């Protein structure tokens, strides 16, 4: 009743369909029990018979019921994990093309096998898309023996794979990959097909066997794990294939001159700060000063607009882009940090001069510029699929966007067991130092109690600051951030041991279960400390979801300060109000009622980011329509 009651709390117009799902899931359970006496060979034979049925497009409701039951039995035999009722229900919703909100720890990897198997039976291909390569490889390794038992071929795309290996992987019934690998392979295929040298005089495409596209002709089905991250957060940046070109000496000198000159420009007098947009705009006085400043000889021949853009970019990076928060320097290269995940985004570069401005800020001597050859967006890529669905732990707050951008409805799936997660009262402080001192005290107390502690930070920089505080207090800990993300799964998996302290950027280790030790559970479970509110409440909920999974004990607490990064992104007027309120208070701890300042700040940023995504989507859609009306290919719109 718990599951039925909760799922029927969704939109009323879905109730008839949901009642059908409930009935089918009961049938699946009954049918799967009949399969337990079959040999592996007999189970595979049943699967191959179903494959023939679906390949001929004759599959009906009873065939889906049978397929789900066969997959449930195969998972039980291989991993001794059989799908619970709520996972069957979630799988059925996925098969009908929904985005499902399924709480962290409820077994989304196992759930995805159900619709993936049904689509695999058609032999038309199914992509299971993950948020990063580690998860793609991990889920592939988990799923491979199950699919092999059922006569289903499976592949995975890794960054180092050559085109032949990719072609083989995409030819499998099920392929695990990230959206970046799928998107870049799609763009490379399009470049290959559209290149004039690959056409004969009649315009027909002629390719050697080794140069054939790696993707199938049709992109059939995609099941997206961590759908909010892939479809919303990571969709903000286009997928771009670029080629290195000789650096424009004039442009490099222009940005170098701006970097040297910007100390003479004063905020409010010469330029306006726009924190919510992370942008600086020159005022009339600033533009006049820019004209009058003596230029270097190497800058001859520049356009006035280009110089203004270069100065505004240089000021913007000075005020709003920080090393170890927004980017890392790795092997003399700028590596962008995703603000939502805390992970490095390999190969990405900022556009419109920002990249060059940051390289000048960091005093790079070797400058490499690029030219765009092809690009696409996650929204455009998603439209290539005949069928699309996804799952995440936090979909409700972005349900409107998912429907607007992708025409995907969202549905919530109840947890298998009621949650007993407890919230410890939020504490607020004036300064970051006072907050860090409180975190130190809390951690020391919990370590003495043999609890496990996970401390979430929004940036690499804040994780390093907190690490320094704990280290000075003699507290042992593991540090997990974008600077060492290759070890994140190993570190996060050990975060549930007695007395273990783990500092992690908020999204690090997402998708990896924390196995909480029994002794820790008996003492209250894993305790999560949120050291700042994230720009998005979804990220906060995902971090909170790391504790008290599957009905286990666990707790969480916000420890915040008025110097947190959250306030830096807000209008100057709002920041001044917060500062004045803080100065009016006595003592170090702030009254709990002041939490409204933090919630208001978070809601403001969420609204602005939502409007920004909507605007970007509208512009992308309009541009695509214009290009298609002219008979042009959107992927080949270059800088």
Q: What do you see in this structure?
A:
By secondary structure, this protein is α/β, with parallel strands linked by helices. Helix content is 46%, strand content 16%. It has 23 helices and 22 strands. Strands 15, 16, 17, 18, 19, 20, 21 and 22 form an eight-stranded mixed β-sheet that branches. The chain has a seven-stranded parallel β-sheet with strand order 3-4-2-5-13-1-14, with helices on both faces. Strands 9-10-11 form a three-stranded antiparallel β-sheet, covered by helices on one side. α11 crosses α14 and α13 packs across α14. It is globular, with a radius of gyration of 27 Å. The N terminus is likely disordered.
Q: What percentage of amino acids are in beta strands?
A: 15-25%
Structural class: alpha/beta
Distance N to C terminus: 56 Å
Q: Mean pLDDT, rounded to whole units?
A: 88
Features:
639 residues; disordered N terminus; 23 helices; single chain; globular; alpha/beta; 7-stranded parallel β-sheet; 8-stranded mixed β-sheet
Quick rundown:
The chain is α/β, with parallel strands linked by helices. It contains 23 helices and 22 strands. The chain is globular, with a radius of gyration of 27 Å.
Give the secondary structure arrangement, pairings included.
Elements: H1 2-7, H2 15-34, H3 40-55, H4 61-79, H5 85-95, E1 99-102, H6 108-121, E2 126-130, H7 133-149, E3 154-156, H8 163-171, E4 174-178, H9 179-194, E5 219-225, H10 227-233, E6 239-245, H11 249-261, E7 271-274, E8 279-282, H12 284-292, H13 304-320, E9 327-330, E10 333-337, E11 344-345, H14 354-361, E12 369-376, H15 378-382, E13 385-392, H16 399-406, E14 410-413, E15 422-423, E16 427-429, H17 432-448, E17 452-457, H18 460-472, E18 478-480, H19 488-493, E19 501-505, H20 518-522, E20 526-530, H21 537-544, E21 554-561, H22 572-583, E22 589-590, H23 595-629
Parallel strand pairs: 1-13, 1-14, 2-4, 2-5, 3-4, 5-13, 15-21, 16-21, 17-19, 17-20, 18-19, 20-21
Antiparallel strand pairs: 6-12, 7-8, 9-10, 10-11, 16-22
Helix pairs in contact: 2-4, 2-5, 3-4, 4-6, 4-7, 5-6, 11-13, 11-14, 13-14
